[in-house]
Design goal:
The complex is a heterodimer.
Chain A lengths: L2 H14 L3 H14 L4 H12 L4 H17 L7 H14 L7 H12 L15 H12 L7 H17 L1 H4 L3 H12 L5 H17 L6 H9 L18 H12 L6 H12 L4 H18 L2 H4 L3 H15 L3 H21 L1 H16 L10 H14 L1 H19 L6 H18 L10 H11 L5 H14 L5 H15 L3 H17 L1 H9 L7 H4 L6 H10 L6 H14 L4 H12 L2 H6 L1 H21 L9 H17 L3 H16 L11 H7 L3 H9 L11 H14 L3 H17 L3 H20 L3 H21 L4 H11 L5 H14 L18 H9 L1 H8 L5 H14 L2 H4 L3 H13 L3 H16 L9 H14 L3 H14 L4 H14 L1 H4 L2
Helix pairs in contact in A: 1-3, 2-4, 3-4, 4-6, 5-6, 5-7, 6-8, 7-10, 8-11, 11-13, 13-15, 14-15, 15-18, 17-18, 18-19, 18-20, 19-20, 19-21, 20-21, 20-22, 21-22, 22-23, 22-24, 23-24, 24-26, 26-27, 26-29, 29-31, 30-31, 30-33, 31-34, 33-34, 33-35, 34-37, 35-37, 37-39, 38-39, 38-40, 38-41, 39-41, ...
Chain B lengths: L23 H4 L9 H8 L17 E9 L4 E6 L9 H15 L5 E6 L7 H9 L1 H9 L1 H11 L2
Amino acid sequence: MSVEEAAERLVREIESTTDLNSYCIQLGDDIMRGNLSILKLVEWLGPLLTNTRVTDREKGTLSLSYVLAALRPDFLPEKDLFFLTAFYCDRTLDHHSLSSAILQGITALIKMDHLPVDSPKLTADSPKLIFSSIFANVHCQTLMQSERNALYRIFQYFLVHKLTAIVPLGLDFVLGFITAIDGERDPNNLILLFSILPRFLTSFTLGHLTDEAFNVISCYFPIDFNPSGDDDKAIKREDLALALVPCLVAIPDFAEFCIPLALEKLDSNRRIAKLDSLHVMKEGFKSVWNSANVEPHLTDIWTALKRELIPGNADLEVRCSASETLSELLKLFSRQRPALLTSFLSDILASTCGLLSDTRLSLYSPAVDLLEVAAKASELACKQVVSNIIPKILITKKGETHNEATTINTLILFVKASIQHNQDFDIGSDVWSPVAEMIINSANIQNPSCRLSAYNGLIVLAAYLTQTQRTVIYDGCEDALTSDERVKIKCIELLKKLARIHPNEIMEKVVDTKLKLTSNKDTNHEMQDWQTEALCGLVILPDFVNPVCALLLDLIDNKPKSAPKIISCLRNLLTDSELMESGDQVLEVICRLCLKRLVEWWLEGFHKVDSNKQNATLLDIAVVIENLVKAQSSQLQAEVVCPLIETVILPRGAEGDGSNYKDLFKKSKHSVIILQALLGYVRPNVLIKNWLPLTTSLADVSFSEKDPLIRDSASELLATLINKQQKDEILATILGHTAKHLEQKLASRDSKSKVNAVKLLSWVTKSLVLRGHGLMAYWIDKLTDQLADCKEPGREAADGYRLIVEEDKLFLIAKSNSMLRIFYRQRLFQRALALASISRTCSRACKPNYLTALAYLVKSVPKSVLLPSLRQIMIPLVESLDEGEDKLELTTLHTLSGLLAEKEPALLSYTDTFIPRFLKLAKESHSMKVRIGALECLKFYASYPPVQIVPYVEDVSTKFSHTHNP
Amino acid sequence: MCADRLENVNPKLFQKCFERDITPEEEDDNIVDEFDSREIFDLIRSINDPEHPLTLEELNVVEQKLVEVNNENNEVRIHFTPTIPHCSMATLIGLSIRVKLLRSLPARFKVLVEITPGTHQSEAAVNKQLADKERVAAALENKNLIGVINQCISV
């Protein structure tokens, strides 16, 4: 094939193909395989490239650009690249329609490995050639968005990958670049530019173009941009604003322009202008500008910042940002110009100290906040601020007793700032010794708020107090512990903190003397409540746990009057979440020391407690035991808890093989509650001996017992044990036993025993539903059957549904080591949807039962489960609001308000149904809670789109008019 | 608002009283409880000051002890104390209190809002304005004024 033929064919192909890019990729493959050379290709493309028709020239150039883009970067030699670069640079002179094709070609060329950069062989420099022709012939502002993007990507490529090749171009490049990017408006292009500008600015010396370069960038500040549409991925104003800041503070030379600009914008009333200006200054002070840049503008900066800080901008974010900016400025001076810091701080102090004269003035707190920021900025600043204002604050305090608490709180702020900078905080120094003295004195005066602040201060100072000071505190602590409740808590916290540092001293001076640790052992002295509380506070410290526990247990045994208080304190201690998370070892020690003796005391000594305190104490000791058991490992539970039952509890029943729980429960009913406390939180893998006799006896107790406390306790424990039983045969036995008795009781005519049976049924169902047991369907159906009873048992069954889905019980929740399968509520909800259809066909009398059960289920499941079934349950939901039963209405309103609060669109189509009903409930219901709930739902409807709710506005306002019109 | 345009740049702040505990009796629908001064005070304590971003309670403009309620005669009498004797906002504050109570209380109550005696230089004039039903009604028809008042009493 002759050259002409081949060229003609190529041109024909290019003109006729619909997918030019793929065809060119093919050509590129041919070239790389050696079937075609690039020179040949250019030669063949000749008729197109030199055609007089612009469209043909464009097609030819585009084809060549596509081919170049398809080649491997290392394929073309330096010489070819030189000629191709020259060709493309020459083309920049051509018609503007070719711009896109040319820029694509250049983009492909610059990525080649052998692009000649200052080449000795060719005496050629492609980057120079490229940029000189681009700057001379391409007018960026006249290009389309995509073409401008291509051009910026060429800049980006060189700045990121071949910076050394363009740095020698110097000011020519700078001028060309800033001229090219000037006036860009497209957000995508701007994000690209803002990402490369910092590198550009830091790599080139701007010289006399600094001003121009800054103007090109600063015209965007502060960014004002509203993205169109709701596209989440679209660029937002914040993205642009964040990207612009590094450009504005890229080099110290910009400071002289940037600071006045930021100050000018900070003066505006627009919130975003303020925030952006503060952000720019903050970033500048942080790492780029130096003190010489900032010094000329210092007065203006301080004036502007002061305006935002005193009396303070109403917008918290602006205020915080201004504080951070001031802090960065002070840090900058501390690093670079301590002398300037001193004079600047003097200005700050001069304008704020006057405001500290009276704590009640509205500017007091903003002034303190500002000074705190200054003190926290650096050690140097802290020293100056503290040495100036502390004496002033102390003088102010004199003669003003009413605001001593505020003064102490202020002092604490500065103490904290000083400690933060200086670990060797010297409490004996001239500045701090009067402060410590004042705080210690205030800790001993009678005003509770003042005392509270003083103890807060002492907690901060605890590690630095001298022995003399500590002695004063120990002397005063008795008084503090007997005073206000909040003061007492803080005082105990202080003692705990001191006890960690000086355990022996606290033992000797507080525990032994004030809390009478030793004297209690042999005298008849009764413990005061405050002593008990302080001791219980100290019990969690490793140094104190043994002696204090021993004392407390002795006291429980020997002093029936003190026992309830000690147990209630222990309960408070053990329900403290902080301890439960951190004090594993201490808890283990307490468990080993106390558990057995507590159980023994419960069995032996409990009756000695005042009869009116018995119930509360019973509850407290149950919680103490539960929490002690809950926190332990399986091993410890097996080691400590299970033997306790065999050795301490069972022998109290009739003699026998240790499995005779029936006799035990007959003899001592309360042992059910003890067993519940001990076994309720035991982990599933701990083996409980004689499980079957225990559960069978419990089932019997829950059927026949008359005392509701014992009965409920037995049901709960039975459900917990069933939930944790891992062997199916044993489980089947007890379930069979329970089911058999249940059938009998449910068939009986005695309403009371039927109600008890339903209660047990609910509990057992709950325990099976939670673990997702295979038999749960049978039990759920059984519970559902009971809803058909229109009397008390039916209502109890409806309440059973609440029991199953709620988590307010102590047992059968994740924290009680129960077996929980995820999504158990969802599974139950799917099964119980049938309730919705039954509620429409059942008799009038039992309808509320079905509706109530359904309302509880609906309330418990998350929105995502509820929404798909909303249509099915809508009719029962609406009927629930018409039933006139408070509980039912309240539960339904709660569900609806949850959906309405999130502006759930599904409820829009029911506006006409719900709004009149809410109005009726809000006006006519006799229950205040229902009225509040209905009003809340109406309030949430008000935040729906106005178009949708406008028809109801008049109706609602007329109904409530009597409260609005006098 | 700019600091240099404020009448009282640095007013004294007072401690807010504690939130009222809701007792079981209050939630019980069967117990009738009369209006008391605390209930009225709760309605007006959170009104914003027209000048500062602070509430009337924080500035001690309204106090519980200066609220009198007479349930039998259906009368509520409130005294408020401007922060400075020449405060030009006194009438506006008084109007805000009146409007808030007109909107919140049942219609049976007659509400009297007055300046605490001896705390303002044109006390009598302001009291007269606030007591004049016609003038109050006219003021509330002024769009700008009701806008400012709504801003003050919005929660």
